Amino acid sequence: MHYNKMLIILPCVVGLALLFACPSKAQDNLPIGTNLETIEYPYTVEYITLQIQGETLKMAYMDAVPEAPNGEAVLLLHGKNFNGAYWERTANDLTQLGYRVVMPDQIGFGKSSKPNRIQYTFQLLAMNTKKLLDSLGIGNVHVLGHSMGGMLATRFALMYPDQTQSLILENPIGLEDWKTVVPYQTVDDWYQSELVQTYDKIKNYQLTFYYDNKWKAEYDRWVHMLAGWTNDIDYPRIAWNSALLYDMIFTQPVVYEFSNIKAPTLLLIGQRDRTALGKANAPKAVQETLGNYPLLGKKAAAAIPGAQLVEIEGIGHLPHIEAYERFIEPLRQFLTAH
Asked: How is the chain split into domains, by residue range?
């Protein structure tokens, strides 16, 4: 059952089973399970088992199969503060167009395993994703990545150019190399900052940096999927994984390899976005230059051979959530052409 149907059918009562449907500060601070056990995803969740660095881990994914297939598939890769569930509307529309849509939760995210110890790399995540596609018998695929998912999508396209039918980057992070101008934070530093996260801190960050201080009730679900972890008995392990992932993002830029991308590429760039990892730790004069997406989008489009740039005015880091119609139409046109 889809989430929006649940809101219509179910009454708003107190209880873990209804936390997702009836968000509030008190509820959003309740545990939701290490692997989001109490959260219902929009499509059936399945798993593949992976052996990684001495651990047996499960990678969750949704596989939306169209009623009238066009023979093509789209891979949707989530950002750092999200999981595959936020692609629901995108997947609904793409399946209506005949595309098979695969939405994984990367290891460390969403309903996938949270390792006890692991060295994260974008190469590892790309390999895990390739194993998932192989298990589903999917060859060529359109790869769409948002935010951190844009860095992963780029790495996937570089590692598997023959399998990447096209590449779509929606407000990807990593369009600049922060470590050249931002002081380095250790994994322990990131871990300590993650341990003190709260519902209010998470919401205020998203309100400020994603939505330009214009909050809608529909955004609550994405805060809940992070804030609900903060009171979980396993939150230290979740926070440690998050710290390792931040270190991966900060230390493994893909920006220097844009010229090596072979796939037809579309950049969808919300022009209000100013996201930059570690910006607050940089000198004031440097902070003001970081995360300039109007400039970064143009630079990325110039660096990627033949890239097409669509600038979405007045929109921030999450076009497919904040301004869906302005996101889906150029995506649809691009996919149809490639």
From this structure: 24-337
Q: Which residues pair with 75 in a beta bridge?
A: 102, 143
2-16, 120-134, 135-149: least confident range: 2-16
Reduced 3-state DSSP string for 244-297: HHHHHHHHCCCHHHHHHCCCCEEEEEECCCCCCCCHHHCCHHHHCCCCCHHHHH
CA distances in angstroms from 173 to 85, 146, 267, 281, 307, listed in the order given: 20, 8, 12, 17, 17
pLDDT at residue 100 is higher than 60: yes
Q: What is the separation of C-alpha 153 from the centre of its chain, rounded to a whole number of angstroms?
A: 10
Which of these, 14, 7, 19, lies nearest to 231 by C-alpha position? 19
Residue 166 CB: number of other CB atoms within 10 A? 20
Q: Collapse the DSSP code of 63 into the 3-class scheme (helix H, G, I; strand E, B; otherwise coil) and give the result.
A: strand
In angstroms, the CA 189 to CA 183 distance is: 12
pLDDT at 1: 41
21's tokens: 């449907």
Average pLDDT over residues 99-113: 98
Pairing relationship of beta strands 100-104 and 55-64 according to DSSP bridges:
antiparallel
φ, ψ (nearest 5 deg) of residue 73? -130, 150
Question: Tokens at residue 42, please?
Answer: 């929009």
Q: Are 304 and 263 in contact (CB under 8 A)?
A: no
pLDDT in tens, 300-326: 999 999 999 999 999 999 999 999 999
If you classify domain 24-337 with CATH, what class do you get? alpha beta
Residue carrying structure tokens 């270190």: 247
**Whether pLDDT at 215 is above 90:** yes
- How many C-beta atoms lie closer than 10 Å to residue 80's C-beta? 20
**Placement of tokens 């609900």 in the chain:** 228
* Other Cβ atoms closer than 10 A to 275: 21
pLDDT higher than threshold 60 for residue 18: no
Question: Rounded mean pLDDT of 188-210?
Answer: 94
Pairing of strands 100-104, 73-77: parallel
